[in-house]
Amino acid sequence: MLNNRLKAAVMALAGTAAMAQQPDPAGQVKDGDKAVNQAYLFAHMTHQDYGRLYYSVSTDGLHWYPLNNKKRVFEDYKGHPDIVKGPDNKYYIVGNDSDASPDINIWVSEDLITWKKHSTYTPDLSKIPDYADAMQRIGAPKLYYDAPSGKFIMTWHTPHKDGTKEDPERYWASQRTLYVLSKDLKTFEGVPQKLFEWSFGTIDVSIRKVGDSYYAILKDESYPTLYWTTGKTIRIAKSASLTGPYSLPQESISPNFREAPTLIPSPNGKAWYMYYEQYPGVSYGLSIADNLNGPWYQASGYTFFSDWDKYSLPQHVRHGCMITISQKEYDALVKKFGIEKEEKK
């Protein structure tokens, strides 16, 4: 009798635990409070249409819904989407036709709906100081506007070694992050420079300033081993100035084999959401912290089961960038393109 009662109690507790609702991720707005950050845009590509421009939106930074019936929103764009808002309140998006293309293309928009060509930049990769063996390759250019200096910084990665049959990873390990400065994204200052002093590979680098510090969000492009456990993970380096020198990166924010990090502030402005892709197009992860120095924890999501997911994105999205937008801009995007609220399992 006692054993039967004990079994029944255990089963009841297990059932209660299974139905228990875990707390929402940090950073959400409490009922009755007003959001500091009203809405978000995710400009991304898809697994089926890599390198083209698609939009998804969110009002809480956690649950994302596709626009335009999951169709392209701008046919001319090619690249890994990255958008920045300039001092003129206009938006700029950067891309390139392929890693082998010599040109970096920039478009401008007043409303995130209509894009016009702004400029084309062709970096001279043969004159980079201390990087004479740089290959003619340009990967994933990204933009950031630095208000204190009144300048944009554009970053991208360029390798200096080909992969081989015996060591295909040599190509990726040789990636180095380069940058160039510009007042207007039409004229650029001098030749590109190396951003970091370290001797290991980095890609997908974006810059953000919080308080008095600059943070370089990056993917450690070394291959993970027992002796380099941070390989293929998302990390952050820190500096007192825009162009460095940057500290060695912090410990990993993500698991291994993650890339294309994108960072947004939470709706209440008291937390940071760092999204990253498990490639190739497998899933998306989300890590959360109350400051960029960490510590970070991972939220549960992208399983497409509503009783487990604390965040959700449309299936088959690939990397790009997330930015904050106003409620007015969100409404205009939804009105123009239409929104698809997907059913969850």
UniProtKB/TrEMBL annotation:
InterPro entries named in the record: GH43_arabinanases, Glyco_hydro_beta-prop_sf
Organism: Flavobacterium akiainvivens
SUPFAM superfamilies membership: Arabinanase/levansucrase/invertase (SSF75005)
Record's protein name: Glycosyl hydrolase family 43
Domain of life: Bacteria
Keywords: Hydrolase, Signal
Record-linked CDD domains: GH43_Bt3655-like
Single GO MF annotation: hydrolase activity
Signal sequence residues: 1-20
Keyword Amino-acid biosynthesis among record annotations: no
